[in-house]
Design a protein that fits this description.
This protein is an alpha/beta fold. About 40% of the residues lie in helices and about 10% in strands. It is built from 13 helices and nine strands. The radius of gyration is 22 Å and the shape is globular. The relative contact order is 0.11.
């Protein structure tokens, strides 16, 4: 354990004692630091800092203290090494700076398997695509088209490894280019979920991609961890695209998180008769997402050009065709 710093060990322990994205944990870590936050759990007599509501602070400490186990850190480090995982922490190589935008909800640490350099490319290099698990043929088709073209452009596709839209995004990215996709999982990377995607997850890591999770190895995904994962899917990319989603799709959490973070958000319209597109239509009707009908629309969302000076992709193409060629008729090549 000598290679693990005190900060890393404290983060590993806190990651088990508290749930991902817990606001009280985040407030305390930012106010007093990781080691001091852990000490508050171990010392029931220690005063809760004033930055946290006292009632919420006492409840937080009781819940966290109830999760304590003997030699927990040793077990987790053993599992981390046994499965070839890597621990990423803030301010160290491999940590994505974009997660700082989450504020108190920023993760304490991440377990990773594969190529962590995909997290340190520019924010605009990554696009999140997520949506319905029970995808229709229409959803599968548009997801494959968007993901393959974006991966070839080249962009990095971020998704959640789930059935339906997520899996299709990963597969299309892998088919287009190596080192092109990141899967953000809700459970430990020693038991990636869903199990039916074991081969997909293996291919992701073998072809230069990356698996990441806030959940420690040995921990199964839960409803709360799926919900917390949504903020990571939104924060890791400059834009999120929803190809297909029902009215109650979990992917809408990702969409709302992206909107609240000020990230670009696109939704692909579907047939008005399809319940699987109701979520996309709601995002569009409420003005949360931009109408997205081509990869050019996504590229425009990722373009750093200020919106006030950016024409829609179709108008850009028309303007280029209509623009005079300075070299035409002069007998000289254009400089």
């Amino acid at each position: 354990m000598s290679e693990y710093t005190a900060d890393t060990i404290a983060r590993i322990t806190l990651a088990v004692l508290t749930e991902p994205g817990d606001p009280v944990t985040g407030q305390l870590v930012q106010a007093i630091g990781v080691t001091e936050t852990l000490a508050l759990i171990r010392d029931p007599g220690a005063a809760i800092p004033s930055q946290v509501d006292p009632v919420a602070g006492v409840r937080w400490r009781q819940q966290a203290a109830a999760q304590q186990k003997d030699v927990l850190t040793d077990e987790l480090i053993g599992l981390t090494e046994r499965y070839g995982l890597r621990i990423l922490t803030p301010h160290r190589p491999g940590w994505p700076d974009a997660l700082a935008d989450l504020g108190h909800a920023a993760p304490l640490m991440l377990w990773a398997k594969g190529n962590p350099e995909l997290l340190t490319d520019s924010l605009s290099s990554r696009v999140t695509i997520t949506g319905a698990r029970a995808a229709t043929g229409y959803g599968v088709q548009v997801t494959r088209e968007f993901a393959s073209q974006l991966a070839a452009s080249p962009r990095i596709l971020v998704s959640g490894g789930a059935y339906g839209i997520d899996a299709e995004a990963h597969r299309a990215a892998l088919a287009a280019r190596s080192a092109s996709t990141i899967a953000v999982l809700a459970g430990g990377l020693d038991r990636p979920y869903p199990r039916a995607h074991h081969d997909l997850f293996r291919r992701i890591t073998e072809h230069g991609g990356l698996l990441i999770s806030e959940a420690p190895p040995g921990y199964a995904p839960t409803k709360g961890r799926f919900e917390a994962r949504a903020r990571l899917l939104a924060a890791l990319s400059a834009a999120t695209v929803i190809p297909e989603a029902g009215a109650r799709s979990g992917s809408l959490r990702v969409a709302v998180a992206a909107y609240e973070l000020g990230r670009q958000l696109g939704a692909i319209p579907g047939p008005i008769t399809s319940a699987n597109s109701a979520g996309c239509h709601r995002l569009l009707a409420e003005g949360l997402a931009e109408v997205t009908t081509s990869v050019g629309d996504v590229e425009a969302m990722l373009d750093p050009t200020p919106a006030a000076y950016r024409l829609p992709p179709a108008y850009q193409q028309a303007a280029r065709r209509a623009a005079p060629d300075p070299g035409r008729g002069t007998g000289r090549p254009t400089l």
